[in-house]
Amino acid sequence: MLGSSKRHKKRAQKDFFRDWLYRKYLLARWLDYQGKQIIRMRGKSRQHEKAFRLILETRAGLGKIVKSLVLDCKCIVDCGSTCCYFPGRRGLGVFLSEEEAEKVCSILEKMGLRREDYVRALDKGGKKPHFARLNKRRRIPEVVLARSPKLLSDERLWVNKNSYACMFLKEDNACLLYDRLRPRSCATFICKTGSMVNALFLLGVIRPSYLDGRKISEINTLADRATTLFSDEGMFELDHKIAVCFMDLVKLYLKSGKGLSGKMKELLELGLEYDLRRNRILRGIMP
Ligand code: SF4
Ligand code: SF4
Q: Which end of the chain has less Cβ packing within 10 Å, N or C?
């Protein structure tokens, strides 16, 4: 049995990435809220101009991370779309809200496809939850099963050899709906491998070409190692200090401008410390 501190550590490691992401999301929302005022204050002095640039660059960076990882979740790992397979012949595919189901059906009609072939409505005590149907003729390929990525919980498999493809998964492994609609359940699915690799890419640590020809087992290892980057206590503290310092800078900028230089210096020093620590950890994790 795990001791309580080990259990706590394991849980903390499981939640580290969501926490990190959530903090970025809150900061981006806060900054969006201040946005109009920030832009109105632009260019009052040289000092303001510098702070303005720093604020906007940070805002753009945060926006990119949050958009790609929270709202879009576009995955750059070519694992054979494991997350579009679901266990069980009688199992259900992706959950669709009432509103999503309607949109999906109208997309299908425009394509000349029959909605009942793709969407299934269950009758549950007056409520009618909708699900994407499973393609019973398309079992998960052995090669995809053998090299599947990891979930956040560290499990490697959430599918088994009796898993079937979502009806919307095309032969080329692209989603039939993707360009028109991303069901919320698909957009918010995060597997550890995909999210870690996407985060490393967004942070500029790896390029997509880094993945060329790499085995999923190697990419799983990279994702495991990348957890250190987000679960390191020193990084966590620095990240928190940077967020507080950054918010103070924005408040000063909007209030009077007095003390801006000192705050910017403090922020840049913290950023430097953060980069040094990050690079040290990265040197240890990159295979
Ligand atoms: S709807 Fe598209 S993205 Fe979602 S599981 Fe089906 S194929 Fe995959
Ligand atoms: S999110 Fe995970 S399962 Fe889905 S495509 Fe990316 S690596 Fe594969």
A: N
Residue environment code for 214-240, b if the CB has 16+ CB neighbours within 10 A, otherwise e: eebeebbbbbebbbebbbbeebbebbe
Phi, psi angles (nearest 5°) of residue 66: -65, -45
What pLDDT digit, counting tens, does each position of 226-241 carry? 888 888 889 989 999 9
Strands (E), 168-276: none
Q: Are 206 and 197 in contact (CB under 8 A)?
A: yes
Instruction: Judge contact between 232 and 259, C-beta under 8 A.
Output: no
The candidate with the shortest Cα–Cα distance to 24, out of 242, 183, 192, 260, is 242
Rg (CA), the chain: 23
Instruction: Please write the tens of the pLDDT for every residue from 23-68.
Output: 888 999 999 999 888 888 776 788 888 899 999 999 998 888 888 7
Our mutation pick for probing the ligand 2 site, out of 74, 76, 79, 153, counting the most ligand atoms within 8 A of Cβ, is: 79
Continuous segment of H or E residues that includes residue 165? strand 163-166
The domain segmentation of the chain, as residue ranges, is 13-73+227-285, 82-189
- Ligand 1 atom nearest the C-alpha of 93 is 5
- Is the overall model pTM greater than 0.70, yes or no? yes
